[in-house]
Design goal:
With 253 residues, this protein is an alpha/beta fold. It folds into two domains: 203 residues, NAD(P)-binding Rossmann-like Domain (Rossmann fold, 3-Layer(aba) Sandwich), CATH 3.40.50; 36 residues, no CATH class. The protein is 48% helix and 15% strand. Strands 3-2-1-4-5-6-7 form a seven-stranded parallel β-sheet, sandwiched between helices. The radius of gyration is 18 Å and the shape is globular. It starts with 5 loop residues before the first strand and ends in a 7-residue tail after the last strand. The structure holds nicotinamide-adenine-dinucleotide. The site of nicotinamide-adenine-dinucleotide has 26 residues, from helix 1 and helix 6.
Length: 253
C-alpha cells in the first residue's frame, strides 16, 4: 500500500481543480480526482499516477462512494479539497428553482457530506486538511448570482464551524476566496459579456469584471493551487478557520 498522503480533489477536470491535482501530485500526494467526465478523468489520473472517481456530487450516494473508494484503494485519506462548482446568472424573480437546488447540492451539501465522511479518518490519524474553494463571492455579493453567492457564503460558514471542531484533532479547515481565475468557467462568462455588450474581451476584463480590483488581470489557476499546497504543508498548521482572499485587492476598499 502507498505510504504517501492521499488527497481527494473534486471538480478535478476543471481549471482550478486540475491545477490543484497537478500541484499536489508534484508535492508527493496521491491524488484522487473526482469529476463527472469519465474518459478525460481516467486519462488525467493516469498521467498523474492518481485515481479517478466518476461521481455526480449532487448525489449523496456518490459522495459516500468517493470516500469509500479512496479508503478501499489507498487505505487512507489525508486531504480533501472541495472545489467542484459552477455558476448560473439570473435575476431572483426568474431564478430557476431546480438550478438553486442543484447549486446548493454541489457547492454546499457535497462539501458537508465529504467533510463528514473523511472526518473519522482524519481524526484517527490526528492530521488532516480540508480546503474549501469558496470565492470572493463568499465574502461579498454581486447581483444575479443568488445561488452561487448563497452557497459560497455557506461554505465559509461550514469552514469556520469545522475548523473549530478539528482544532483538537490536528485537522485544519480553510477556505480560499479567489476573484476571477482564468478557467473555462470565466472564459465563457467573458465571451458572453463581450457579445451582449458589444465590447472586446479585454474591455470586459478590465472595465466590467475587474472594476473593483486594484490589479487588473485574471488570476492563474496555479496561483490558487500554490495556496492549496501551502495550506496542506506542516508550515501552515496554525492557519485554520480562515477565509483567505486571492482577490487582486477587490475587497481592500
Ligand atoms: N474561475 C473563477 O474565477 C473562480 C473564482 C472563484 C471561485 N471559483 C470556484 O472554483 C471552483 C472551480 O472553478 P473552475 O473555475 O475551475 O470551474 P470549472 O468549470 O473549470 O471546473 C469545475 C469542475 O467541477 C465539476 N463539477 C460540476 N458539477 C459537478 C458535479 N455535480 N459533480 C462532480 N463534478 C462537478 C465540473 O465538471 C468541472 O470539471 C468552483 O467551486 C468555483 O466556484 C472559481
Amino acid at each position: 500500500m502507498d505510504e504517501r498522503r492521499t488527497a481527494i480533489v473534486t471538480g478535478a477536470l476543471g481549471g482550478i481543480g486540475r491545477a490543484v491535482a497537478e500541484a499536489l501530485t508534484a508535492a508527493n500526494y496521491v491524488v484522487v480526482l473526482v469529476d463527472i467526465n469519465t474518459e478525460e478523468g481516467t486519462t488525467l489520473a493516469a498521467r498523474l499516477n492518481g485515481h479517478f472517481v466518476a461521481a455526480d456530487l449532487a448525489q449523496r450516494r456518490d459522495c459516500r462512494r468517493v470516500v469509500d473508494e479512496t479508503i478501499d484503494r489507498f487505505g487512507r485519506v489525508d486531504v480533501l479539497v472541495n472545489n467542484a462548482g459552477f455558476q448560473h446568472i439570473s435575476p431572483i424573480e426568474s431564478f430557476p428553482e431546480d438550478k438553486w437546488d442543484l447549486m446548493l447540492a454541489v457547492m454546499l451539501t457535497a462539501p458537508f457530506l465529504l467533510t463528514k465522511y473523511v472526518w473519522p479518518h482524519l481524526q484517527a490519524q490526528h492530521w488532516g486538511r480540508v480546503i474549501n474553494i469558496a470565492s470572493i463571492h463568499g465574502q461579498v455579493a454581486s447581483p444575479y448570482k443568488a445561488a452561487y453567492i448563497s452557497a459560497k457564503h455557506g461554505l465559509i460558514g461550514l469552514t469556520r464551524t469545522t475548523a473549530l471542531e478539528g482544532g483538537n484533532h490536528g485537522i485544519t479547515v480553510n477556505a480560499i476566496c479567489p476573484a476571477y481565475v482564468r478557467t473555462p468557467l470565466v472564459e465563457s462568462q467573458i465571451a458572453a459579456q463581450a457579445e451582449s455588450r458589444h465590447i472586446s474581451a479585454d474591455t470586459v476584463i478590465e472595465d466590467v469584471m475587474l472594476a473593483p480590483a486594484a490589479i487588473k488581470r485574471l488570476i492563474e489557476p496555479a496561483e490558487v493551487a500554490a495556496l492549496v499546497t501551502y495550506l496542506c504543508s506542516d508550515a501552515a498548521s496554525a492557519i485554520t478557520g480562515a477565509a483567505l482572499n486571492i482577490d487582486l485587492g477587490w475587497t481592500a476598499r
